[in-house]
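Many introductory courses stop at the sequence. We go one step further.
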Amino acid sequence: MKKAGISSRSSGDWIIFAAFLKSKSMKHSIRILPLILLAGMAITVTFAGCKKKDMSLKLNEPRNIRGVISYKRSFGDLNEKHLNVAQAIGIRPLASRQEAEKMKEKLKHITTNELYAVDSLTHSIPYLIPGAASLLDNIGQNFLDSLTSKGLNPNKVIVTSVLRTKDDVKRLRRRNGNASENSAHFYGTTFDVSWKRFQKIEDEDGRPLQDVSSDTLKLVLSEVLRDLKQADQCYIKYELKQGCFHITTRK
């Protein structure tokens, strides 16, 4: 009988001990469960990061590209309009580039950035009054946004002429006798944007992008400029021979 009692107690002890071990195991599992989940997430992120990038040619998917009815009629603001506002809100004409360096507190230096490209300027210097610089930013940003909304790969507008000094105009007239001696470019209010050339923006990951024709880009740019002109932000003259839009801020 004693042996049976001992056996019964031993069996009970084993049951209690097994329950104890199970409880400890569960607590341990609960403690390590977050670590297991974190490790799983890390592995998932790692594999996602290693996913092969799409390097196929990114095609344009053009839509809603209308342009304007007529470039000459839509952008026919004559030089008198440009001059009147330029003289009213711009700086005084400068004799030389050295003089322009002393006007930096009234002018903003412009350079190639994420919104537009500045061409190699030969007969002007890259300065504008703040209002004109802001207008140029808006043109660059609106152009990029329009390309995206119209399913076209990104390109930047190119600025081809900015502030001119009297010395610049003298040199320009030796090459082009039609260059105006009384230009809105004297006042820091005016800049030219090419409609013939644009700067393609390459994909950051090296994915090849299909080119967009200059004719298509010109149509999109004309819509952007038309909207700004209709909002009384600027005067614009379509320059056929020079291949640019001549733009003067009104603010």
